[in-house]
Amino acid sequence: MKTSTSNMAxxxxxxxxxxxxxxxxxxxxxxxxxxxxxxxxxxxxxxNLVVMGKSGSGKSVMIKCLVGLMKPDRGHISVMGNEITKLxxxxxxxLRSDIGFLFQGSALYDSMTVRENLEFPMxxxxxxxxxxxxxxxxxxxxxxSVGLAHxxxxxxxxxxxxxxxxxxxxxxxxxxxxxxxxxxxxxGLDPITAKEIIExxxxxxxxxxxxxxxxxxxxxxxxxxxxxxxxxxxxxNYAEGTYEELVLSKDPKVEAFFKK
Amino acid sequence: MNTAKxxxxxxxxxxxxxxxxxxxxxxxFKEAVKPPYEFKELLRQCYHMGNxxxxxxxxxxxxxxxxxxxQSRPTLVEFGAVSWMPDMVGISIVRELGPVxxxxxxxxxxxxxxGAELGSMRVTEQIDAMxxxxxxxxxxxVVTRILATTLMLPLLVILGDTVALYGSALVENFKxxxxxxxxxxxxxxxxxxxxxxxATIKSFFFGFAIGLVGCFKGYYSKKGTAGVGFAANTAVVxxxxxxxxxxxxxxxxxxxxxxx
Lengths: 260, 260
Known about the structure:
Mean pLDDT of chain B: 91
Largest sheet of chain A: 7 strands, mixed
CATH class of the largest domain in chain A: Alpha Beta
Oligomer: heterodimer
Strand content of chain B: under 5%
Number of helices of chain B: 8
Number of domains of chain A: 2
Helix content of chain B: over 70%
């Protein structure tokens, strides 16, 4: 583990891996509230990276800057070699087809059925999947991968919280993204459903070989899924390492986070 | 107590809002002419807007026609001018009452609906989800709604006017024994292009204002679920005010043309 305060760097031997996301010196503030203060991060191909931090530590702001929903004040964000801040709308939209985003509250479109929700991203990026004459098999496959094929014609209001999260996950999968960003994937769910979602995230990663960036403050979620973790404190990456390395840390801020 | 500061803040806030709304309107015109066009969603919105308000507009129009005739009748009888009833009612409904009352009814029904709908989509991150999926939410949600209200309001006004005139004719038929045919012949004799054209043009502007304010308030809704209610509420208040301003300007301009 390495911390910015103690400079305890643990060098781990690794094969050179393709960098999917590279964030360097990211700053973002809202008036006098400085949310991100030089955040750095690398996500490698096929990796599950967890970014943890307290509520209000800037996790969601960081992930929104990553997909161009917010503009950073300063810093570089490179996604698969494309500098996000310099892309025009057209190029950004094309890049977004390779990024799946699971929102904290699922963000299913209320006025559409589950099927229409899943078909929606194909309106713009359908050509990515070849010439599609019938979207039904694709929708069916995505829903089957989250175990909800029978919900196709239901409205979001007819689904439970866990089911909504699964459908939202199916929606992110429909365009076969290379990267999936999870914003608090287990928040608001009971422990059993949360566990099911985590298992689902793992199986999706194995099946599709996606790289995953998971934003959470759920320690159990991080323990199960993280290959590497970053602890975000005061807008900077305060500590970095595997789950075990962080749990064993004697740094008071890191300890406080993992203390039950 | 120093009230100068809050008043100056309120005035500043008002002008900032006007400025932001002007930019929002400018963005609408820019996005409306740029492909891809959302025809399917536009038709869906036209159907919803028209369908949602039709019964209310018809009932209100009918009652206005009845009441206006019942209220005016004694005075006209007193002056021996009851034969002028169709002319008076026809002109006042077509030129002023029909468009204004239909627009006010739609402001309450449609502007608040749009404000609440887009506000809740903003709060639940559905707008962000749309953006991430590569669909331009401004084009899909805002442009279609503003175009739908702009196109549908004149139709609703025509229907509202027709029903109001029927209401008036019904009173004249019962109280004065005037046939429907005679009544409508008198109405159409009294009406000229100078009455119909300004009223129709005015209705397009009313529809545009309803869509614009509803979308503006909803699209930039803040402060969670409380913000949704606030967006719906302020959409109605602001639209109603704006309708009277537009009406004044329209009457002022058409008056200049009459004098010419």
